[in-house]
Amino acid sequence: MIGYAVRRLLLVLVVAWGVTTFLFALAQLSGDPAELMAPPDASAAVLEATRERLGLNEPFLVQYGQALLSAVTFDFGQSFSFGQPAATMVMERLGPSLWLVIPSLVLCVVVSFGIGIVAALKPSRVSGRLLMVGAFITGSVPYFWMALLLVLLLAVNLQWLPATGSDGMASLVIPVLALTLAAVSTTTRLVRGQLLDSFGEGHVLTARSKGVPPWKVLFGHALPGAMPPLLAWLGIEFSFLFSALLVLEPLLGYNGLGALLIRSVGNQDFPLVQASVFCMAMLITLVNIAMDLIVRLIDPRLRAKAAA
Amino acid sequence: MTTATVPVAKSKPVRRSRGRLVEILGRVWGDTSGRIAIPMLAVLVLIAVFAPWLVPHDPTHQNLAAASQAPSWLGGEGGYLLGTDTLGRDVFSRLLYGLRLSLVVGVVTATGAALFGLVLGLIAGYFENGVGMLLMRLADIQFAIPFVAVGVALAAVVGPGIVKLMIILAVWGWANYARTIVNSVSQTKRMDFVTAAHTIGARTPAILFRHIAPNVLGPVIILWSTSAGVMILVESALSLLGLGVQPPDFSLGSMLSDSRTTLRLAWWATVFPGLAIMLVVVAFNLLGDAVRDALNPSARTKSDPELW
C-alpha cells in the first residue's frame, strides 16, 4: 500500500515537470512578451530593459531552469498585465472556482446516486427506463447552452437572479446548476451499471437468500461493492468540471480561476497562464491520486491482488 | 463449418470478414438506440449536404430592417421559420450551414484522434518498457491539464482558427485511445499467433497492424462513436470563447457566441443553435451506445437481474 502511494505520488512530480515543460514551450513559441508589455511607441532601449528585467536575455537552458524552479517554489513572477505576483492572484481566484466545483460535485453525487439507485432497483420497469432516458438526454445537453438557458429563464424572464457577475450566493446558482446537470448524466448511468453488476455477485445473492432486509442488502452489501469504480470516476469528474469552468466563468462573468486564465491567455500574460494552468493540473492530479488511494484502501479485492 | 462444402471455398476469408461487418451492423440496427441513431444521423447528414438547396435565405446576408424578428409561428414578421438574429440573419438558414461544420469537425477530429491513438497505443503496448512507458506517462501528464486550457493556450500561440483547432483536438485526443487499448495490446503480443508471425519473419509494422490491431479495434470503434459527440461539444465550447471558427465562417457553437449577449432581444438565436448541437450529440451518443452493445455483448446489462 505504502509502495503504491509512493509510486502514485511520484506521478505528481512527473506531471509537474511535464506541465511546466509544456507551458515553457508555449511561452517560447508565443513571441516576445516585452513588446506586448511596453507601450507601442517604446524605444529599443526600453524594450531591452524590459527583456533584461524579465530574464528573457538569459540563455535558453537558464530560462528553462528558472521555469522549473518557479514551479517548485510556486512563484511564477509578476503578472504582466496586473503587476501583482501571479501565484497570489491564482490562489485568490481558486476559492471562487472551488465554490462552483465543490457544490456541483456534491449535488451531482446526491442526485446521481439517488436516481441511479432507484433506476437500478427497477431496471426493467417503465419508471427505471424513463429515468435512464432522462439521464441520457441530460448528458447530451451542452452545459454552456444550459447556462445560457438558465440565464434566460431565471435572470431575464423571472428576474430572480443576476444574469452575470460573482457577488454573493445568488451568482453561484446558475453556474452550479449548469455544472451539475452536465455531470449528473454519466455518473447516474455509472451508478446504475455498477449496482446492477453488484446485484449479481455472490455476496449480495447470499445476503438476500439469508433473508437480510432489502435496504440492508442495498446499503450494506451491494453499494459498498459498487463504490470503488464510482470513487475513481468522481476524480475524473472533478477534472471535467474544471474544464467546463473555463468556458462557463467567462460566459457568465464569474471571477474565478477559469475566467482569469482565459483573460490572461488573451493578454499573453504568461506568468499568469503558467501559474493558473499549473495550479489546476496539480489540483486535478492530487484529487485523482487521492481517489486512487481511497479506492485501494477500501477495496479488499485490490488489496488481495496486490498481496498475491 | 457447413460452408466448407460450398464450392467457392477460395473466397471464404473475404466473405467471412464481410459477414462479420454485416453482422455487427445488423446488431447496431437491432438495438433500440441504434435504430433511432442511424436515421437521425442520416437525416442530419443529408440536411448538411443539401444545405445550399434547403436554405430559404442567404445565411450570411445581414438585413438590419428585419433584425431580431421572432420565429414566424410566434408572430414574427417576414416569415422567418426560426426568426432572425440581431443582425437580421435568418437563424434557420444559419443553422443548416452551421450543422455542416459541426458534423465535419466531429467526424474528422474523432477519426484523426482514433487513428493517432491506435498507432500510439499499439506502439505503447508493444514496446511496453521503453517507448511505451514514456508514452503512458505523457498520457498521464495530458490527463492532468483540462483540455479547454490546452485549446485556449495553444490558440493564443498559433492563432485561432477551425483547422488549427481540429488539429489540436485530434492530436490531443490520442491519449484516451492509447490508454484504452495498451493493456490488450501487450496481452495480444504474447499470444501464439504473434509468436508464429515472428517466427516466419514478419516485420514489426506488419505484426502491429495486421496481427495485433484487428484484436483491439473493437474498443477503438466504441470510443470513436462516443467521442464524435464530445468533439462537437468541445468545438462548440471553444468557438463560444471565440477560439474556433472565425467569421464569416460559422458553426453551431459560434452562433451561440454571437447571440449570447443579445439573449434579451432574440432568445431564439441562442435557443435553436443549442438545440441543434444537442440533437447531433444525442445522435452520436445513441450510436455510441448501440455500437458498444453490438461489439461487446457481455457489457450489455445482462438480463437485468431484478432482485427486489
Summarize the structure.
Chain A has 308 residues and is mainly alpha-helical.
Sheet with the most strands, sense and barrel status of chain B: none
Shape of chain A: flat
Q: What is the alpha-carbon Rg of chain B in Å?
A: 24 Å
User: Biggest β-sheet of chain A: count, sense, barrel?
Assistant: none
Backbone shape of chain B: elongated
In angstroms, what separates the terminal alpha carbons of chain B? Answer: 44 Å
> In total, how many beta strands of chain B?
0
CATH T-level fold name of the domain at 96-298 in chain B: MetI-like fold
In the CATH scheme, the class of the domain at 96-298 in chain B would be Mainly Alpha
Show the largest interface.
Answer: A-B, 57 and 45 residues
Tell me the number of helical segments of chain A per DSSP (H or I, 4 or more residues long): 13
Q: Which class do the helix and strand fractions of chain A yield?
A: mainly alpha
What would you give as the CATH superfamily of the domain at 96-298 in chain B?
Answer: MetI-like
Number of helical regions of chain B: 12
Strand content of chain B: under 5%
Q: What's the pLDDT, averaged over the residues of chain B?
A: 82
What does the model show?
- The complex is a heterodimer of chains A (308) and B (308).
- Chain A folds into two domains: 2-73, no CATH class; 86-298, MetI-like fold (Orthogonal Bundle).
- Chain A has 308 residues and is mainly alpha-helical.
- Helices cover 81% and strands 0% of the residues of chain A.
- With 308 residues, chain B is an all-alpha fold.
- Chain B has a domain at 96-298: MetI-like (MetI-like fold), CATH 1.10.3720.10.
- Chain B is elongated and about 75 Å long.
- The model of chain B is unreliable at 1-15 and 300-308 (pLDDT under 50).
- At the A-B interface, helix 1, helix 6, helix 7, helix 8 and helix 10 of A face helix 5, helix 6, helix 10 and helix 12 of B.
